[in-house]
Design goal:
Layout lengths: L17 E7 L11 E7 L20 E7 L4 E6 L5 E7 L6 E3 L18
């Protein structure tokens, strides 16, 4: 809604925010502390200021909760510290907990051999 000095009064009401609970776990089902819930989309692209006030990290049990979440879908990357991330996961307020299990860091190893000198 655009606010203008010449506007007549407008009556409206806001619905209460929804509840989203995310648990980020390791390969053994244990909560991962300091996993990041990185907001990506809500009603299209946004500049990150809409969610700047909200903590983006799980607690010591790997749990992140939001009690004032939008009632419609938003998307977030679920980022494991020193590990892989799950991109653009859809989240919506609901009673059930979301559980995510991001993979550990991808480690690539190999050997390089010079073609001429071996």
């Amino acid at each position: 809604m655009r606010v203008d000095a010449e506007m007549k009064p407008v009556n409206f009401s806001l619905k209460p925010g929804g509840h989203v609970r995310v648990r980020v776990v390791d390969e053994n089902g244990r909560g991962i502390p300091k996993a990041r819930i990185f907001f990506q989309r809500w009603r299209g692209r946004f500049q990150y200021f809409e969610f700047d006030h909200r903590s983006q990290y799980t607690d010591n049990d790997g749990v992140w909760e939001w009690n004032e979440a939008p009632l419609d879908e938003f998307q977030a990357d679920i980022c494991r510290p020193d590990g892989m991330q799950l991109s653009s996961q859809p989240l919506i307020a609901r009673a059930d907990e979301y559980v995510f299990r991001p993979a550990t860091a991808l480690i690539v190893t190999g050997r390089v051999v010079d073609a001429k000198t071996k």
